[in-house]
Amino acid sequence: MFEIATSILEDLNKPYKLSQEQIEFYQENRYLKLKNVLNKDVIELYNLLIREKVQELNTMNTPLEERDVYNKAFLQIMNIWTQSATIKEFVFSKRIAKIASDLMQVDGVRLYHDQALFKEPGGGFTPWHADQYYWPLESDKTVTAWIPLQETPLEMGPLEFSAKSHLMQEGRNLKISDDSEIEIQKKLRLGDFLQVKEAFELGEVSFHSGWIFHRAGANQTDKMRQVMTMIYMDKDMTLKKPENINQQADWETWCPGAKVGEVVNTPLNPIIYEKAS
Predict the structure, then answer these.
(1) How buried is residue 148: exposed, middle or buried, by Cβ count under 10 Å (0-12/13-18/19+)?
(2) pTM of the model
């Protein structure tokens, strides 16, 4: 059995100090990029471990050119923490979960699910969308940590954000598609929302809320863009009645046994971080 070095575990759980300015920036813009969240040793280890697990679990064998827009955008493997004890240590990182909790200004966070997002060499763009279209969750107290497992230049297709776009109601009913790319981009331009398109340094992690609109460019390099994400929600989040078939599917898959109107407290949605009382 693979044993993780004590220093790695310490780094995954060591608190990251946010400034009041960073918290206020997130509250206003609903996204934030933070440098030096993870060190080189942590990233190199989990680059290898997550890559191996994605290769093991991936069932996509359709050639890239024959896929639809959604499946050209990335290979995705979810809830890897249930398949690997070593990757579970990463997904359950209190360092990252505490950042999510502090940014949302809540007393603690649960895991909604994790998700590896690998964009293959030549992989297509990820259309504009808001994640919470897919989630049967009662409030917007949600945040995704987007964690590149390598330096990610613009040519590799890093995540892009539309600052303050959580204020826009149009486009919230659109799933990831060609239509969402066209329609949401049009609305964002009309609303004069700032588009943030930047490379990610090694160890840099971004956080974005469920209703912020975001996208990613194509991977124009000959290397795989390897990203791990963790989606967190307020520890007191309640389940709402699904509003579309995707929310119904998410309920059954990521919150099995949860009941509408009650806290999403299932074995797949453990509390990862909680403030000391």
Answers:
(1) buried
(2) 0.94
